Amino acid sequence: MPSVVPASGGVDLTGVDLSGVDLSGVDLSGVAAAPVGRRSELNGCPALWRRPSGEPRLFVSNNQHLKGFPMRLSHLPLRLTTGAFILNSGLNKRRLDAEGAAGLQAMAARVYPPASSMKPELFGKMLSYAEMSLGAALLAPFVPSRLAGVGLAFFSGSLFTIYLKTPGMTLADGIRPSQQGTVLAKDVWMLGIAGALILDRKGAVKRSGGAPS
Question: What are the backbone dihedrals phi and psi of residue 34, each rounded to the nearest 5 degrees, phi first?
Fold first, then answer.
């Protein structure tokens, strides 16, 4: 391991490879960080960053993954809430009667016309299985967030399209929900979560050495 060179006010670790050193619990208050635009990867503690004034500050990356899984820790609340909500909805639809299934089928046919050719009971079962599968995928930590987000985007996008195309769901402008349409319009939060899962990039810091976003 390279020697640590003293610097003014503390120790300069610039250029020192600490990838194999456990620094958890070590007081780094007097350690000089890497220059602006360059990260120091310290094993067991957050990376250090130099303020414009020259004083070091701590920068905690939000790019941590659950150990052994591709799901990021920051995605956990998003996937837990939507996954549990959709899974419960699918489980409840297993006992859907023919009249209730027919009502959902008529709404879905506005987005996907071939759905009207199915028997209501079969449509209800397929919808139940689809929701349970999507909910389970969102809850499963081994499913990549981007893949789960694509499934959620398709599901929530379909709900939002049904909301826009169903008469009486919107006000005169065709976008704002009426009192009746609020039940469907509120599900737009799932579309926003899907976008966050799909668009979230792997790095919190640019590989070219830019400052953290």
Answer: -70, 160
Instruction: Report the alpha-carbon distance of residue 163 to residue 30 in Å, rounded.
Output: 58
pTM score > 0.70 for this model? no
With contact defined as beta carbons under 8 Å apart, do 151 and 134 qualify? yes
Long-range contact pairs involving 123-129 (C-beta distance under 8 Å, separation at least 24): 124/93, 124/96, 124/98, 124/100, 125/94, 127/90, 127/93, 127/101, 128/90, 128/91, 128/93, 128/94, 128/96, 129/90
**Contacts for 27 with CB less than 8 Å, ≥ 6 apart:** none
The separation between the first and the last C-alpha atoms of the chain, rounded to the nearest angstrom, is 32
Q: What is the pLDDT of residues 160-192, one digit of tens each?
A: 998 888 888 889 888 898 988 888 887 889 999
The one-letter amino acid at 27: D
Please say whether the beta carbons of 123 and 115 come within 8 A: yes
Per DSSP, the residues of 56-119 read EEEE--S--B-TTSS-BGGGHHHHHHHHHHHHHHHHHGGG--HHHHHHHHHHHTTT-GGGGGS-
Task: Give which of 136, 177, 185 is closest to 156, Cα–Cα.
Answer: 185
